[in-house]
Amino acid sequence: AGGDLAEATGMEVKILEGGTDAWQATGFELVDGFENMASANDDVWYKPYDHDGEVVAEHMRNYLTWETELVEQIERDGTARFRRFD
Residue 10 pLDDT > 90, yes or no? Predict the structure, then answer.
């Protein structure tokens, strides 16, 4: 995979021999979460209840607003075509 990545990007790629086990064997920690992301986490949509605390209700309202305005958004876009059933 490293060779394919280097070829596709034209960039130098380094591979840790032994992978995750080798990383841990050197004493480095494994972490879960978003603290070491290379870019903003903006390409994923989370369900309203995937959020913590009081913001759940706000995310639910935002989703319902998006959904109820979807027909108008599609009409403004003009490129989507749907068959109408009366």
Answer: yes
DSSP codes, 8-29: HH-S-----TTHHHHHHHTTPP
- Rounded Cα distance between 54 and 50, Å, is 12
Q: List strand residue ranges (DSSP E) for 1-86, in order.
A: none
What phi and psi, each to the nearest 5 degrees, are found at residue 30?
Answer: -100, 140
Determine the Cα angle at 54 with ends 57 and 73, to 5°. Answer: 30
- How many CA atoms lie less than 13 Å away from 23 in the CB half-sphere? 8
Share of the chain above pLDDT 70, in %: 100
| The pLDDT of residue 83 is above 90 | no
